[in-house]
Amino acid sequence: MSNKYPSQVLEDAVNEFSKLPGIGRKSALRLVLHLLRQEGGIVETFGNTMIRLSKEIKYCKVCHNISDTDVCSICANNSRDNSVICVVENVKDVMVVENTHQFTGIYHVLGGIISPMDGIGPNDLRIESLVERVASGTIKEVVLALSTTMEGDTTNFYIFRKLAPYDVKISIIARGVSIGDELEYTDEITLGRSIVNRTLFTDAFRV
Hints:
2 domains, alpha/beta, Dna Topoisomerase Vi A Subunit, Chain: A, domain 2, single chain, 207 residues, elongated
């Protein structure tokens, strides 16, 4: 047993919480002690919810968004414009764009962006499934909504080249989003305007 903690069970719990992003050991200890002060039923519900999250969560077979079903609620919504795809880096970005209430199409979650420094290449992302969706002939426009970083722009350019053989409009969100910004840190009004005022990729980058 560690000399720092009076209980090995407590220490194990702190160790697990401290593995979460942005949670140091002090914060982890505070969270664990908070749970200990709750009624047993609350802690049990918390634990069971995390287990369900691990075992029952699904990824949409169409767009790769998190879902409770094989096809997410956005892809299954007949009122959405299924001819326009917004390409985003991750699930959080889907939520951010949805909160602007300015986009009525569907999504494609890449699962990251090209970053050689982090060992992430095109084959590590869901780019081929995007190409397959476009190749089906039902897509009229692909909106690239990746972070305005060097890695984001590299990914945008790669996707543009992959989709070049197809008769599809490729646009990019307007640069109201500051260079180097990630979508989740952009306010909803700015992001909403950037989506509405999106421009052709060729005009933005003069390909």
